[in-house]
Amino acid sequence: MASEVSSGSVMQRNSSRGTMLFGNRQERVYWLFLAPVLLALLVFFLLPLLQVFWISFSDPSIGTDNYVRLVESRAIQKVVLTTLRICAITTAAAVLIGYVIAFTVTLAPPRTRSLLMFAILVPFWMSVLVRAFAWVTLLRNEGVINSFLMSFGIIDSPLAMSNNEFGVIIGMTHFMTPYAVLPLLASMDGINPALVAAARGLGAGTTQSFLKVFLPLTKPGIFAATILVFIMTLGFFVTPIILGGGRTVMIAEYITVQMQQTLRWGLAAALATVLLAVVLLLIGLLSRSMDMRKILGGG
Prior knowledge:
This protein is an all-alpha fold. It has 14 helices and no strands. The protein folds into two domains: 1-58; 66-295, Orthogonal Bundle (MetI-like fold), CATH 1.10.3720.10. It has helices at residues 2-58, 65-72, 74-107, 110-121, 128-139, 144-151, 165-189, 193-201, 206-217, 219-234, 238-244, 251-260, 265-289, 292-295. The chain is globular.
């Protein structure tokens, strides 16, 4: 009996030792595959960011002059306010339209749902440049919309729908609506339909059950969609240039002008650093509000 117990303990120690060795080997293999990714991230991402941060303090002279100029310059303040205004309107419109689309997909039967999901994903495969020029064709003075309205005598002169903020907002809303649908749809899929049915059974009407039960349960998805869309719209570059026609300047375009034309790299780096800090803050809020795997469609 004693020999069996001792042999059993020896086997258990050998097994645990083998597990430790195997575990360590797995860990070494894990870090062996992860090391090139971390090295590439350091060389091609973190080091350039640190260089941008250093340029913001060192060009043209070491100090905080560039950040002071961000606060004092009326031109920069105008660009920032224009960007925030366009981003806010675009976010509100994209989330509202996305909510309607996500709600429709949630209530649709399986076959219709598959077709709707395909229609939602199609825009992800199209270039932003192609979509921007398509909106130029639709919104310009001689475009499809103005020509249609004038041919039926609805308007006497073309409506100014491009080369201004209106055109930029239309193009950005069209681009961002699918991104708003994804977190909203993930949030709605997690709602138990029995809750709405129970509210209806207790005497609540369709509108009341939606406002009192369904809508409050989708608040995390609304918040996640709002933050996600707002983050992405802050860095828009192609759409404002094409649909804004140079009259609507946003932060990304302003940074490009400072770097390529006026050669004020320090000012551009300072503005880019502040923009990055705001984006990281918003990403932190987004990660706290909703599981990122659900936002990305991972379930």
